[in-house]
Specification:
- Helix content is about 30%, strand content about 25%.
- The protein is of the alpha/beta class.
- It folds into 2 domains: about 1-90, RNA methyltransferase domain (HRMD) like (Transcription Regulator spoIIAA), CATH 3.30.750; about 130-305, 3-Layer(aba) Sandwich (Rossmann fold).
- The strands form 4 sheets. It has a 7-stranded mixed beta sheet.
- The longest helix has 19 residues, at about 60-75.
Length: about 300
């Protein structure tokens, strides 16, 4: 059953990927309840993350089951098993909750996307370092970044920052609470031969606190993809995207210059943007147009373009 499903979906998505010149894409996402994986192709290697569940198997039995699944994947994709990396992931409230060390071994690869290159880690963490669902949004940022002052909040590994720099941004400021991800972001910038220490700044800080001190009219373009919920030990308070998004966006609009734009997204299923409380009438839901072919019907992310 698993093999037949993989044959069907991989044939379909790989064909679409070739047409669009996409090297990294998701081709399976919990399609069958008995095989609860998110499986992604990264230019020749495979990342298969099993969703946490009550499978009722003992550890040895579960390991054997995972190995059997890996063998099926290798057969369908006609690749070696050492090119397939399998993990167990938690269903957590927000992306930040997934950022936990997974293993001591480290396997990195460089993968291409739209003429740029990104470092992915296939072993150490539950995510690879490149969120494939924002592929289109990243391209939109690059297209409008020229001579803009760009702020990337909750920047993770800096893929939006790299796209902005590639688009000719006058300045790119990347902010995150994790030093690990900030260093990764800087490496991505350096690998693409874009890094300029007079234009590109990587700031280690709690975003929610840091934005309180941004001078008005400081940026032309802001990217903000916060966690659904965060209660980090390094934060004084909790953050809930549904409860707190209006206060957050008010601060970001103040930080924007006139005519500035904010790309705001989050992964909270059922998220409702409180448009009436946001001090601008220029709010556009761009979820549909920013959803790539490999996430159609599978994505709970919301994405909005907000202009000042």
């Amino acid at each position: 059953m698993f093999e037949n499903r993989l044959l069907k979906v991989h044939k379909h998505y790989s064909k679409l990927a070739r047409r669009q010149d996409v090297a990294c894409y998701r081709f399976y996402d919990h399609d069958l309840p008995e095989f609860p994986f998110a499986i992604e192709w990264y230019n020749g290697v495979v990342h298969a993350a099993e969703y946490k569940r009550r499978h009722g198997m003992e550890d040895e039995e579960h390991d054997a089951w995972l190995q059997a699944c890996k063998e099926v994947l290798a057969k369908v994709l006609q690749t070696e098993q050492e090119h397939i990396f399998m993990k167990v992931r938690q269903r957590k409230a927000g992306r930040q909750g997934q950022y936990e060390k997974f293993a001591e071994q480290k396997v990195e690869r460089i993968v291409p996307e739209s003429g740029l290159n990104f470092i992915i880690n296939l072993t150490d963490y539950l995510d690879t370092g490149l969120f494939l669902d924002h592929r289109i949004t990243r391209g939109m940022v690059r297209d409008e970044a020229k001579e803009k002052r760009v702020l990337n909040l909750f920047c993770y590994t800096g893929s939006f920052s790299v796209y902005a720099a590639a688009g000719g941004a006058a300045e790119v400021v990347s902010v995150d609470l994790s030093k690990t991800y900030l260093n990764w972001a800087k490496r991505n910038m350096q690998y693409n031969k874009l890094y300029d220490d007079e234009k590109h700044y990587f700031i280690h800080s709690d975003v929610i606190e840091w934005i309180n001190d941004i001078p008005a009219n400081s940026f032309d373009l802001i990217i903000c993809d916060p966690p659904t919920f965060s209660n980090s030990k390094r934060m004084d308070d909790t953050f809930d995207v549904q409860r707190d998004h209006v206060a957050l966006l008010k601060k970001l609009l103040k930080a924007c210059d006139d005519g500035g734009r904010i790309y705001f997204s989050n992964n909270y299923k059922g998220f409702v943007l409180d448009k009436d409380s946001i001090p601008t009438h220029l709010v556009k839901d761009i979820t549909g147009v920013t959803t790539p072919f490999d996430f159609q019907g599978r994505l709970h992310r919301s994405c909005f373009l907000i202009e000042k």
